[in-house]
TrEMBL record:
It holds the Pfam family AstE_AspA_cat. Pathway: Amino-acid degradation; L-arginine degradation via AST pathway; L-glutamate and succinate from L-arginine: step 5/5. The lineage of its organism: Bacteria, Pseudomonadati, Pseudomonadota, Gammaproteobacteria, Vibrionales. It comes from the Bacteria. Transforms N(2)-succinylglutamate into succinate and glutamate. It comes from Photobacterium pectinilyticum. This is Succinylglutamate desuccinylase.
Length: 348
């Protein structure tokens, strides 16, 4: 059975990961009138029969890191439900399983961290660069074909953290030159019972940043629990997020209200970059995200540079001394209050 037929039968993940199957393109309609286009391996466009003028163009991506499997399982479930007619989307969707080669290897990437390669184009020097180029092209064509204004473009890039976290679920809102922190986006996070949001203060070529920067999309990197193998994820714990995601794609404008203090918001205070091979962190490799240290604590060093906690309340996120030189080795963040007048902004 070919890739296209497997996808038509709802086996999107199986078709994506079977690298013995030739890549196929195809268009068809479901019994409920939904138009589907298999754009390429792991890239499926879904269009409802009727598209209201104020509907959204929504990208839902997973598997940009190959070992982060729970989001992949959630999107497989969503696609299967759409193709069977159980779910009727009212928005255009682009559903992506990001990095099939890395997924099959049970690794984050093949040669290079793909979630640092979304910068419009890459020289095709490895499988990660090639795939990043494919995904950027698919997203670009999807948004351009939709013709929606920026406020109606959304992108949820679903991930898992490689370590434990004080917040089991949280998001990173990328820094961009566009207005990409719409109040409705953060109200959705509250409905999905996401525990925390981190407001980035500097550009970084992640998949969500690409959509935010180049297309003005309301884009987030969504961290859903901790990395585990297929079949070993606690999907029940992610039910609030999945249910909210279903509501997002099946309702034009859910009637949600901002709930003060339901979502903890942090701003980035500093980014520690790995400058030399001497970089090291002064705490265990498996230290949980959002761990807080007292002011004055030595966090790490890089040759002759020492990094300390400079202000009370700073916490660490994404610490990783093993990143490549020139990449982010740790974020320092601090909880803030926010204003929600149109855009969500930190109150300094």
């Amino acid at each position: 059975m070919g890739m296209l037929q497997l996808v038509k039968e709802g086996k999107f993940l199986e078709a994506t990961l079977d690298m013995t199957l030739p890549e196929e393109w195809g268009r068809w309609q479901t019994e409920s009138g939904i138009e589907c286009i298999l754009v390429g391996r792991g890239i499926l466009q879904i269009t409802p029969a009727d598209i209201p003028s104020y509907s959204k163009d929504i990208v839902l991506s997973s598997g940009v890191h190959g070992d982060e499997t729970s989001p992949i399982e959630l999107l497989q479930r969503l696609v299967s439900s759409v193709l069977s007619g159980e779910i009727q989307p009212v928005h255009r969707l682009l559903v992506i399983i990001g990095h099939p080669e890395a997924i099959n290897l049970h690794r984050r990437f093949v040669e290079e961290n793909m979630n640092r390669l979304f910068r419009a184009s890459n020289e095709a020097i490895n499988p990660d660069c090639v795939r990043a180029n494919q995904l950027q092209l698919a997203v670009s064509e999807f948004y351009q074909q939709g013709g929606k204004s920026e406020q109606y473009r959304w992108h949820l890039d679903l991930h898992c953290a490689i370590r434990s976290s004080t917040h089991y679920t949280f998001v990173v809102s990328p820094s961009s030159t566009n207005q990409t922190r719409q109040r409705d986006l953060f109200v959705f996070l509250q409905q999905a019972e996401i525990e925390a949001a981190l407001l980035s203060n500097a550009p970084s070529p992640t998949f969500s940043w690409y959509s935010a920067e180049y297309f003005g999309a309301q884009a987030l990197t969504v961290e859903l629990g901790k990395v585990a193998a297929f079949g070993h994820n606690d999907l029940q714990r992610l039910s609030p997020f999945y249910n909210a995601m279903v509501e997002l794609v099946t309702q034009l404008k859910p009637d949600y209200l901002w709930q003060q203090d339901k979502l903890v918001v942090y701003k980035v205070t500093r980014t520690l970059m790995k400058q030399t091979e001497h970089f090291m962190l002064n705490f265990p490799d498996d230290q949980a995200n959002f761990t807080m240290y007292p002011q004055g604590t030595l966090l790490g060093s890089d040759k002759d540079i020492e990094y300390y906690v400079l202000e009370e309340g700073e916490t660490i996120v994404f610490p990783n001394a093993k990143v490549a030189i020139g990449q982010r080795a740790c974020l320092l963040v601090k909880e803030v209050q926010v204003s929600t007048d149109g855009q969500v902004k930190a109150i300094t």
